[in-house]
Amino acid sequence: MLNEKGFTLIETIFSALLGTIVFLGMFQIFSISMVAFSRQNGLNSTTNDMARFLYVFSCDIHGADSVSVTGHSRVVIFKNGSFINYTYCGNTIARNGKPAIKNLSYAYFSQTPAYSGSGRVVYVLIVKNSEMMETGAYAE
C-alpha cells in the first residue's frame, strides 16, 4: 500500500469544474451589470439633452415680444428685435435651422391663453427613447 499524499484525478477534475462554474457565474453577473450601466448612462444622457433643450426653449419664451405656434410643429418667437424659429421635422427640433435636439420619438408644441392677464402659455412636449418631458413657459 502506497502512502502518497495528494489529490486524485477525480478530485482535481471536480475542483476545476466547480471553479469554472463559479467563474462563469461571476462573469455573467459582470456582463449583466455592464449592460445595465450602459443603459442607465444612455438614459441619463437623454434626460440631460432634453432638460438642456427645455431650459433654452423656456429662456427664449420668457420676455419674448411675441410668440406664435403654427401647426403644433413650429414656434416663432420675436425677442429683442430678432426672430427665433423652432421647427419639428422628422425626429429633430431645430432652433434657427440648427439641430437643437435629435432622435426624438415625438414632439408637440401648443399654446393656450394664460389664466390671468393678456399673455399666453406655450407648451412643448418631447419624447425620446421612451422618456417624456414637457414644459410650459409664459409669454406676454
UniProtKB/TrEMBL annotation:
The chain crosses the membrane at residues 12-37. Keywords: Membrane, Transmembrane, Transmembrane helix. InterPro entries: N_methyl_site. PROSITE patterns: PROKAR_NTER_METHYL. The keyword Membrane applies. This is Prepilin-type N-terminal cleavage/methylation domain-containing protein. The lineage of its organism: Bacteria, Bacillati, Bacillota, Clostridia, Thermoanaerobacterales.
